[in-house]
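Structure in, sequence out. Go:
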């Protein structure tokens, strides 16, 4: 039974399999094999393709840093921000199998100075905030692959 105390901040963007491994849910055009994230059901993003059906697919759990930055300011209202605010890194990770670049938060404790282009990253989840009902809302995040 899923833990009701922890739920995705956005439904349908990631899932956890039976082994506890988290993967992103993307979509793939069956006509030209183009991938997209976040998932959607239609409108292939490839300008050379007229496909209008996208099928949901699990995406790679690993990739390499394509680019990164550090967020040093809390988001404006109405977005939740921890108090006190702590800077955090954001990485654009090129997925290993799809070649798709996915932007995401990097786990707490990792800042821009800890990252470099080409570094191997792995998908995980982390708490974003706790809502008014006491439910911890999770987001997907990137973490460095242990050496």
């Amino acid at each position: 039974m899923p833990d009701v105390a922890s739920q995705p901040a956005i439904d349908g963007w990631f899932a956890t399999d039976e082994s506890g491994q988290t993967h992103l849910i993307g979509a793939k055009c069956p006509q030209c094999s183009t991938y997209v994230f976040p998932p959607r059901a239609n409108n292939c993003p490839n300008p050379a393709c007229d496909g209008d059906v996208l099928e949901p697919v699990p995406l790679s759990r690993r990739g390499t840093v394509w680019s990164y930055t550090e967020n040093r300011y809390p988001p404006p209202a109405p977005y939740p921000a921890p108090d006190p605010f702590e800077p955090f890194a954001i990485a654009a990770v090129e997925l290993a199998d799809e070649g798709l670049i996915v932007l995401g938060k990097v786990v707490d404790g990792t800042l821009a100075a800890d990252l470099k282009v080409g570094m191997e990253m792995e998908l995980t989840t982390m708490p974003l905030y706790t809502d008014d009902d006491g439910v911890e809302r999770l987001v997907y995040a990137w973490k460095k692959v242990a050496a």
